[in-house]
C-alpha cells in the first residue's frame, strides 16, 4: 500500500470521526483550514475573490486577510463571530446589514483595503461588543457623522493613513471607552471645538503627519485621561488659547516638525511648558526667517531644555555656546535695553520683531533673560545681551567678520574680548 493511499485513508477516517462526533465542526470550505477549539476558519492568502459560501455557522474566528475579496454581502458571517479579519483585500463595497447580526463581534479588521473609500452611515450599527475597529489605509476621505454611533465598548480605533480631510464635531461622541485613537497620516487641517467630545477614557491620540494649521482652544477639553498626544509633522505655527491646558494627565507630547512662530504668539505655549512636567520633543522655531535661516549671531546662546521653543539656528549645532565665558555688558544695563522691542512686556516668554532686521527679547525662569538685535546683513548692527542668574551676563557685538564683547560670571570672573578677521 502506498504512503499516500494510507494517508488518504487516515484522513477519511478522521473526517468520518469528526462528522460523527456530536457538535464537531461541519465541513470546511475549500481553500480554508478549520480548527475546532476555539471554532476557527482560516482562509488567508488564498486568492479568494469573495467570502466563501458555507462558512460553519458556529465559527468564532474568521481569518480572511490577504485575499482579493471585492465586496461584502449581508448574511456572509454567522452570529457567533467574535474576531473577523478582512485586512489587505480589495473590498470596495459593503452591503448594508453585513455586520448587522453579529452581536458577539469584538474585533473587526478592515484595514488596507485601498478601494473602500466610503462607508454607509449604519455600517457598524449594533456592534455593541466591538472593542477594536481597524480602518487604516482604506483611502477614506470622510466619515459619516453617525458611523461610530452606539459603539460603547470600542477601545481601539485605527483610522490612520487614510485621506481624511476633516473630522466633524461629535464624530466620536459615543465612544466613552475608547483608549486609543489613531488619526495620523491623514489630511486634516483643523480641529474644531467638539471634535473629541465624549472621549473621557482616551489615553493616546495620534494626530501627526496631518495638515493641521488650526486647533480650537477647547478642542482637547474633556480628555481628562489623555497621556500621549502626537502633533508632530503638521502645519502649526501657534496654539492660540492654550488648548494643552485642558490635559491634566498628559505625559508625552510631540510637537516637532511644525512651522512654529517664535513671536508673541508663542507666549501661551512657552508659559505652559514652564508650568508642566510633560516630556516633549524639542520645538524649533521656523520664523522669523532671520532666526531660522542660518544666522547665528543674534540668537541668544542659552541652552534650553527639550520642550522649550528653540530658535532653529541655535539647534543646528554650533556647540553649546552657553558654555563660553558669560560676558558682561560694556555699556551697562542701558546697552541691554537697546534691542528691546515694543509690545513685549518684561518677564513674559519671548517676543520677536522683524523687518529688514530683527530684534527681540526673551525671558525664561528666574534670572535668565536677554535681548538681541540683528542687522539687515552680516557685519555691524548685530548685538545681543543676556543674563543668566545673578551675576552672570554678557553682551556681544558683531563687526565685519569679527566680534567683540564682555562678560561677567559670578564673583570676580569678568573680561572682554575682541576678535578680528585673520
Ligand atoms: C488568482 O485568481 C485569479 C482569478 O480569480 C487568477 O487569474 C490568478 O492567476 C490567481 N492568482 C494566483 C496567484 O493564484
Ligand atoms: C480591485 O478593485 C478594483 C476596483 O474596485 C479593480 O479595478 C481592481 O482590478 C481590483 N484588483 C484586484 C487585484 O482584483
Ligand atoms: C463603557 O463605559 C461605561 C461608562 O464609562 C461603563 O459603564 C461600561 O461598563 C463600559 N463598557 C465596557 C464594555 O467597557
Ligand atoms: C510628514 O507627513 C507627511 C504626510 O502628511 C509624510 O508624507 C511625511 O513623510 C512626513 N514626514 C516626516 C518627517 O515624518
TrEMBL record:
SMART domains, sorted: LRR_TYP
Compositional bias ranges of the Low complexity kind: 341-350
InterPro entries: Leu-rich_rpt (IPR001611), Leu-rich_rpt_typical-subtyp (IPR003591), LRR_dom_sf (IPR032675), LRR_TM_domain-containing (IPR050541)
Signal peptide residue numbers: 1-26
GO (cellular component) term, any one: perikaryon
A Pfam family per the record: LRR_8
Species the sequence originates in: Nothoprocta perdicaria
Protein known as: Reticulon 4 receptor like 2
Family of the protein in this entry: Belongs to the Nogo receptor family.
UniProtKB keywords: Cell membrane, Cell projection, Glycoprotein, Leucine-rich repeat, Lipoprotein, Membrane, Receptor, Repeat, Signal
Membrane topology category: Lipid-anchor
Subcellular location: Cell membrane; Cell projection; Membrane raft; Membrane
Region of interest: Disordered: 294-386
The organism's place on the tree of life at top rank: Eukaryota
Amino acid at each position: 500500500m502506498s504512503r499516500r493511499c494510507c494517508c488518504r485513508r487516515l484522513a477519511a477516517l478522521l473526517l468520518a470521526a469528526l462528522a460523527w462526533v456530536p457538535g464537531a465542526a461541519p465541513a470546511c470550505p475549500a481553500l480554508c483550514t478549520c480548527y475546532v477549539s476555539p471554532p476557527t476558519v482560516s482562509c488567508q492568502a488564498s486568492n479568494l475573490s469573495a467570502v466563501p459560501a458555507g462558512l460553519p455557522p458556529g465559527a468564532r474566528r474568521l481569518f480572511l486577510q490577504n485575499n482579493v475579496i471585492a465586496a461584502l454581502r449581508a448574511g456572509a458571517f454567522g452570529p457567533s463571530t467574535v474576531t473577523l479579519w478582512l485586512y489587505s483585500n480589495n473590498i470596495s463595497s459593503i452591503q448594508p446589514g453585513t455586520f448587522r447580526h453579529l452581536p458577539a463581534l469584538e474585533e473587526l479588521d478592515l484595514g488596507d483595503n485601498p478601494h473602500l473609500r466610503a462607508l454607509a452611515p449604519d455600517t457598524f450599527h449594533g456592534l455593541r461588543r466591538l472593542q477594536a475597529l481597524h480602518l487604516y489605509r482604506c483611502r477614506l476621505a470622510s466619515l459619516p457623522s453617525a458611523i461610530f454611533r452606539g459603539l460603547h465598548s470600542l477601545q481601539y480605533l485605527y483610522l490612520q493613513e487614510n485621506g481624511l480631510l476633516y473630522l466633524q464635531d461629535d464624530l466620536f461622541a459615543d465612544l466613552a471607552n475608547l483608549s486609543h485613537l489613531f488619526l495620523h497620516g491623514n489630511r486634516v487641517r483643523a480641529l474644531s471645538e467638539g471634535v473629541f467630545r465624549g472621549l473621557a477614557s482616551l489615553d493616546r491620540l495620534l494626530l501627526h503627519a496631518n495638515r493641521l494649521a488650526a486647533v480650537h482652544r477647547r478642542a482637547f477639553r474633556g480628555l481628562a485621561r489623555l497621556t500621549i498626544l502626537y502633533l508632530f509633522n503638521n502645519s502649526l505655527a501657534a496654539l492660540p488659547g492654550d488648548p494643552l491646558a485642558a490635559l491634566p494627565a498628559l505625559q508625552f507630547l510631540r510637537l516637532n516638525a511644525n512651522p512654529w512662530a517664535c513671536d508673541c504668539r508663542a507666549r501661551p505655549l512657552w508659559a505652559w511648558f514652564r508650568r508642566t512636567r510633560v516630556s516633549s520633543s524639542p520645538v524649533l522655531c521656523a520664523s522669523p526667517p532671520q532666526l531660522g535661516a542660518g544666522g547665528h549671531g543674534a540668537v541668544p546662546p542659552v541652552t534650553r531644555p527639550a520642550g522649550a521653543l528653540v530658535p532653529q539656528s541655535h539647534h543646528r549645532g554650533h556647540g553649546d555656546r552657553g558654555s563660553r565665558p558669560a560676558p558682561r555688558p560694556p555699556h551697562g544695563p542701558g546697552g541691554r535695553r537697546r534691542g528691546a522691542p515694543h509690545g513685549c512686556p518684561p518677564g513674559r516668554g519671548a517676543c520677536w520683531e522683524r523687518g529688514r532686521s530683527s530684534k527681540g527679547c526673551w525671558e525664561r525662569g528666574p534670572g535668565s533673560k536677554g535681548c538681541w538685535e540683528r542687522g539687515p546683513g552680516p557685519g555691524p548692527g548685530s548685538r545681543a545681551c543676556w543674563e543668566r542668574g545673578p551675576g552672570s551676563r554678557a553682551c556681544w557685538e558683531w563687526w565685519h567678520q569679527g566680534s567683540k564683547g564682555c562678560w561677567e560670571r559670578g564673583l570676580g570672573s569678568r573680561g572682554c574680548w575682541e576678535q578680528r578677521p585673520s
